[in-house]
What does this fold into?
Amino acid sequence: MSGSKQLHESCDGVGFWIVSTAHAFRQALECQLTHKGITFRQWEVLSLLSKDGEQPQSDLADKMGLEAQTLAGIIARMERDGWLQRKGCCSDRRRKLISATAKAKKIQQEMHECCELVRNQAVQGLGQKELLELKRVCELMRNNLAGDCPEPNLIPKIAETIHTQTPCKTFPLDEDTHISMDDTIAPTNSIRSRKP
It folds into this structure.
């Protein structure tokens, strides 16, 4: 198999396990949310607002891993539908603070129930000891990956390491896929929900 083909394939290793599991979580959650008339991105916005309170649009974009322009369209539609409201920031009038409306807050319990249903489905067959170990391992890996990107000369060249990689199936991700490792599905104090 050519090196260029290997570069476009996922490795059957820890990264693949985590990403594919997060993808399965998202699909299951999106499925549940669809029945409630909520999209995954709407859930994500409302979850962050529930967890962190009103905040600038730029902060939401950073947390969601989206370009500001992409989020602007989502925010505009949610505002049009009565889910969000914007108000000027007292320290900088050019910045707008985004907050959830009373209409959005009314569905928080339903969103939470969607998350609980998916979470319970995912952990079937796992005991408390296994879940605590999973949490410990995920925290360790997040800490290992935290920090600034290392200088290029400190990273082994892909061409030098490609022969050690084990080829496996590709795992497609669309360009706006975002994986949050803050919790198994949602931030602890957030509304919980997602779609296929």
